[in-house]
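Entry, Tuesday afternoon. Goal for today is a structural model of the target with adenosine-5'-triphosphate bound, before we commit to ordering more compound. Inputs were pasted exactly as handed over by J.K., no edits. I checked the ligand SMILES twice against the vendor sheet because last time a stereocentre got dropped in transcription.
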Amino acid sequence: MIRLQAVTVTGRLQDISLNLTSGQCVHLIGANGAGKSSLLTVLAGLLDIDSGQYLLLNNAINTYQPAELAYYRTFLEQDYHCAFPLTVAELLDYYSGGSHIDDSLAAALEISAFYHRPLTALSGGELQRVHLARVLLQLWPQIEHGQALLLLDEPLQGLDYRHQHQLLTLLNALAIKGNLVVMSSHDLTMSFDYADRLVLLKNQRLLACDTVGELVESTRLAETLDCRVHWLYDSNGRCAVRTEPD
Ligand SMILES: Nc1ncnc2c1ncn2[C@@H]1O[C@H](COP(=O)(O)OP(=O)(O)OP(=O)(O)O)[C@@H](O)[C@H]1O
């Protein structure tokens, strides 16, 4: 679905080559400033590249009109702010075209309890769940057909553990339908459990792109994050990660 060839954005991304196919959850891992948000913004077609090539569905990204792009991909930005004094229902109605919110989405994000409240009267995590619903509703018909590109910048930000698991389970189910999910994460334990593939970024360059299984036992994660990474397994093979400064 996505093919990047030597993509550079001056000061933000250096020489990134990457192929990502549909039907998987890809987690972008890297320290602050590594280039995760920049890469997601390029993938969304919202940041011009200075050199290289980006093909989305075999077409150069700059051949798409904004309305066409909005049909294929949705993008959760880290710092989105709604400038209008809307309620949750009004915002989501606008993005869904007034259609019914799918049961799987409603169950994962649990927004019904504050559906009629103003956006300004929500907690940080509640607001994050509303924005997740917003970006998924923008493309829900394409998502249901497994044809969408979901770009999510730190979607776990502000969510409690239960909602983190519910969201990641939903995203895995959407990937199984055929969608491509690309999200940034600072939580290696969650990525171990839910990512199909990790993209490791360091100093705006690509260090590795491989399956979680391949990368867990390598030194690449420690190199990416500039700290020691220890994987702690329980008897069921479930794992948690512990990090230490180098
Ligand atoms: N709007 C911008 N204009 C110019 N440079 C930027 C801009 N936004 C980010 N940068 C720079 O681009 C580089 C990559 O930043 P980016 O936001 O992509 O990192 P990140 O991996 O998402 O970091 P974080 O984990 O802190 O969110 C950094 O050096 C940053 O200072």
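The radius of gyration is 18 Å.
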